[in-house]
Amino acid sequence: MQDNSLVFRATAATFLRDKAYLSPSDDVTATKPLYVYAPQHDVEAISDVLQRNQIPHIMNHYGVRDYRNKTLCFCGLAALSDLQLSFLVNAATAGAQVEALLDHLDKRLNFVEVDLLNADYLLDNSKRQNTSNHYPLLKRWMDIGVSLLLLALTLPIWLVTALAIKLESSGPVFFQQRRTGLFNQEFDILKFRSMCEDAEKDGARWASKHDSRITRVGKFIRKTRIDELPQLINVLKGEMSIVGPRPEREVFIRDLEKQIPFYRFRHTVKPGVTGLAQVRYTYGASVEDAMHKHRYDIYYIKHQNLWMDVRVLLDTVRIVLTGQGV
């Protein structure tokens, strides 16, 4: 009897994953309630997340009769009861849209709900929009092409910036700092120096919006993102990409990963000069800000494609030209 139950659970789980992947996307902007099925011990936490995002929902309801135009979501598939699995399988075969809750929220919110993150979601590559085997090569070509173009177009800016930095304060024009990149490998990121010399003589700390260590020139080049231009060299060296999660320092990562779920998952892709988090979220230098940015970084990793890269790049140009930023 136990063997039959295990076979049923495995078959049901496979069916639901495939059904969620193959079924057409539901109208995620609708106000109709979302039916969610989860282990009882997760119900309160899931309900809190859905309420926070103003999504009407009904938890573990088995009285549904008409499955047309209804979306049923599951969370914690491996921990669902046989009753829940059987109900979801029957609902899927009767015409309901059945999918994983995190996948549904991705489409609805355009970011990942960090509070619901789990290893299954992160390791499941079947739903990545980046299905083309050519994407990594195309992305690298775009990185090289955009970097060379920007280097040529911004050369006068480099010269003026270097002169302004030297005139205002002593110290080098460029600033190198160890950051953690692809597969947790550290590299030296290159930036125009925007702080006074020996800015970290008392130890490493995040830069804040009104940081006294930032020079007058530094404030301007940070606001206009000019300080990031030297990272184009990191891109040409293959250490970074034009678009990707921003690289962080290992000393901060060790602290952040204790408070933010799966924080190091960002290192499964190359870090970027700009990223989805940078164009969707305002500047911030706190753990809470890092948590919000993490939602967009994970979303980018799971859904990255060339068109998304182009959109992020264009949004970055808009932000720079309109003076938004630090």
Automatic annotation (TrEMBL):
Q: Which Pfam families match?
A: Bac_transf
Cite the Bacterial sugar transferase domain residue spans from the record.
139-321
Q: InterPro entries in the record, alphabetically?
A: Bact_transf, EPS_sugar_tfrase
Keywords attached to this Swiss-Prot or TrEMBL record, sorted alphabetically, are:
Membrane, Transferase, Transmembrane, Transmembrane helix
Q: Which domain of life is it from?
A: Bacteria
GO molecular function annotations of the record: phosphotransferase activity, for other substituted phosphate groups
Query: Topology with regard to the membrane?
Result: Multi-pass membrane protein
Which cell locations does it reside in? Membrane
From the record, give the transmembrane residue ranges: 144-165
One Gene Ontology CC term in the entry: membrane
- Which NCBIfam families does the UniProt record give? EPS_sugtrans
Recorded family membership = Belongs to the bacterial sugar transferase family.
Name this protein carries in UniProt = Exopolysaccharide biosynthesis polyprenyl glycosylphosphotransferase
Natural source organism: Thiothrix caldifontis
